[in-house]
Amino acid sequence: MRFEDLLIPKPEGLYCPPGDFYIDPVKPVSRALITHGHADHARSGHAAVMASQQTLDIMAIRYGEDFTKTRQTAEGRTTVGDVTVSFHPAGHVLGSCQIAVEQGGTRAVVSGDYSRVANPACAPFEPVDCDLFITEATFALPVFNHPPPSQEIGRLLDSVREFPERAHLVGAYALGKAQRVIMLLREAGYDAPIFIHGALQRLCDYHIEQGIPLGDLRPATMDKAEAKKLREAVVIAPPSAFASPWVQRFADPVISFASGWMQIRARARQRGVELPLIVSDHVDWPDLTRTLEELNPEEFWITHGRDDALMRWADLTQRKARPLHLVGYEEEGE
C-alpha cells in the first residue's frame, strides 16, 4: 500500500485515515495518539486520548484530570479502526513512546522525539523494524555532535567544587531534563540535597513514584539570608524562573543551562549562561543518521526541525525521504 494511504500530514498533525486518529495533533481532535508529555506534543482538549500510562498521568498532572473525555492506556498491540497500533519506548522522557501503525503488511513508525543516549530517568529507545520511519530533525546538522552527558555533569561538579560559595543554578525543563540532570548528578556520586524550584515539584514527585531514585530533593524557597548560607549547592529551575524575581535571592550565582542548544555558544551568551551544559534528550546528527542506517526503512519522513541537511544526506546515501514541515512543535524538551 502507499504510505500516504496510511498517514498523511494535515494542519492538525499526522492523520491516519484507516484508523481515524491523529498522532500528536496541535489542535483539538476527536481521537489523538500521543507520543509523550511535552506540551508541544501533548495538548489538552482532545475528545479521546491514547498514550502510555505514564504519559496519561503526566498530562493529568499538567492539565488536570479532565484533560480529555476518554483516555486509553496503550498496551500491547491494539486495533484502532482498521489498523493495528503499538507503542515502543523512545528514550526521550518518562513515558515517551514511538507509535507503530500497521495495515496490510506495511508498518510505519512515528518516533515523536527520541534519543539513543542512555537516560537514567526513562526507558531506552527500542528500534522497531518498519517500512516508513517518521523522525524529528531538531539537531539535524553535522555541527551537532553532543558530548557524553557524564562529561557535562563532571564540568558542573568541577565548578561546584571550584566555587563552593556560589550557588549553581541550572536551567532545565520541568519534564524530563530536570529529572535527568538530577539522576546524572546522583550517578556521578553527588548525594547532597538538590534544591528544586516549585514548578518542578509535582513532576519530580511523580518520577519518584515511578521508581526513579532522585534522592534528597528540597524546595528552593529559602529567603536571601538562607540562600547566602548555601555552600556547594545545586539548584534546578525551569528556564522561565531565571527571568523572575525568584532568582534574585541568590547572591552571585553561577548560571547554567542544560540543553543540546548549548553547543551553540551564541545561544549561551544570549541567555547569560556562564556554565553551558550540553545535555540533550534528542538525537544529535551522528545518532540520527545511525538510526536511519540501522532501521534502513524503505522511506523516511521528517516532521519538523532542520530538514535541509538531512534531505541532502538522504540524497547522498540514495535514500528516499520527504520533509513534512509540520508546525507547532517547539523546543520545550530542550
Automatic annotation (TrEMBL):
It is an enzyme of class 3 (hydrolase). Coiled coil: none annotated. SUPFAM superfamilies: Metallo-hydrolase/oxidoreductase. Its EC number is 3.1.-.-. Keywords: Exonuclease, Hydrolase, Ligase, Nuclease. GO terms for molecular function: exonuclease activity; ligase activity. InterPro entries: MBL, RibonucZ/Hydroxyglut_hydro, Xnuc_lig_assoc. This is Ligase-associated DNA damage response exonuclease. The lineage of its organism: Bacteria, Pseudomonadati, Pseudomonadota, Alphaproteobacteria, Rhodobacterales.
